[in-house]
Amino acid sequence: MELSKSKNKRKRCIKLSNPVYVENSAGVVGPKEGTSHFAEGFDKVCKDPFLGKDSWEEAESELQKEALDILLRKACITEEQIDCIFSGDLLSQSTASSYGLLSFGIPNYGIYGACSNCGATLALGAVLLSAGYAEKVVAMTSSHFGSAEKEFRFPLGYGAQRPLSSTWTVTGCGAFLLSRENTAGSKVCISHIVMGEIVDAGLKDPQNMGGCMAPAAALTIGSALKELPYSVDDYDQIITGDLGEIGSEALYDLLSLQGYDITKNHSDCGLLIFDREKEDVHAGGSGCGCSATMLSAYVLEKLKAGEWKRVLFVPTGALLSKLRSEEGMTIPAIAHGVVLEHC
């Protein structure tokens, strides 16, 4: 399968002129996610999936508000010290971000890359900081199982049967404080970004997001391995966002066609966040909150401790439109990557 239809040999990888530091992070999740192996790493586990609100959409906005509040407290800074926020979610017009961040009065860029949002917001924030146009930037993304099902598939009250190929949208939000100067003694920095490209593999099944996203992940990871001075073995982990079981297997096959074997050091946030033997999540986890909360609770902790020295982090997104899907259109996908290193 042809992964890209690009006519030229454009480079997708950028080495930041100045590394950008991940100064702090915050992760807020719902009750189902709070039963995972990583529960202790989340900053807050909400017992009520509605978060005390009247709708799923309001609950997701509250996730973003809670995560940013916690991030500011952990970093001991005020909202006036944040130059801007890059935020994203899965809802129409990015309403989770719009309403969740409304009260903070911080300049905001709303980003939509579906479940690749975490990679996109980190990359854009890093570029702004590395170029010297800001001092502190927040990158944050959220998703909610109830709001995502309502937006893209069927409202929960419909009681639709989920096929085994489906993934469970994570209820959660991850927020990250990025800094131009390492004044807080951060142990993690972003050294490179890998720009994603829209890939359409011709798949039409909205219940098989992993299959839709795998070709985009293969293109982004393959680009990183071709352009950056690091081999597969130079990464302690190559971590994708939410391919799940089906998407991860497809990724291995697609990368093998390029001559790469990542099976020994690949992890997928969608396979990590839930205990699939105990939870009815089928192929794994998904959603913007999947990679974001796992980055906060797990990946950054490994890098901070020095257990990992370098990670290629590649959140993946299916650019699904419920309307277009119902009209029989295919589902394109994209994946954005960042290289995270122990400082």
What does this structure look like?
- The chain folds into 2 domains: 18-179, 3-Layer(aba) Sandwich (Peroxisomal Thiolase, Chain A, domain 1); 187-342, Peroxisomal Thiolase, Chain A, domain 1 (3-Layer(aba) Sandwich), CATH 3.40.47.40.
- It has 9 helices and 15 strands.
- The protein has helices spanning 56-75, 95-100, 117-130, 145-152, 209-227, 244-257, 269-272, 288-304, 322-326, and strands spanning 13-29, 44-45, 84-88, 108-111, 136-143, 168-169, 172-179, 188-194, 237-240, 266-268, 285-286, 310-314, 316-318, 333-335, 337-342.
- Strands 1, 2, 3, 4, 5, 7, 8, 9, 10, 12 and 15 form an 11-stranded mixed beta sheet that branches.
- Helix 2 (95-100) links the parallel strand 3 (84-88) and strand 4 (108-111).
- The protein is globular.
- The model has no long low-confidence stretch (mean pLDDT 90).
Q: Which CATH class of the largest domain applies here?
A: Alpha Beta
- Order of SSEs, N→C? EEHEHEHEHEEEHEHEHEHEEHEE
CATH architecture of the largest domain: 3-Layer(aba) Sandwich
CA-CA gap between termini: 39 Å
In DSSP terms, counting alpha (H) and pi (I) runs of 4 or more, how many helices?
A: 9
Specify Rg, calculated over alpha carbons.
18 Å
- Looking at CATH, which topology of the largest domain would you report? Peroxisomal Thiolase, Chain A, domain 1
Number of domains: 2
CATH homologous superfamily assignment of the largest domain: Stage V sporulation protein AD
- Percent in strands: 15-25%
> Sheet with the most strands?
11 strands, mixed
Tell me roughly what share of residues is in helical segments: 25-40%
Structural class based on helices, strands and sheet pairing:
alpha/beta
Roughly what is the average pLDDT, rounded to an integer?
90
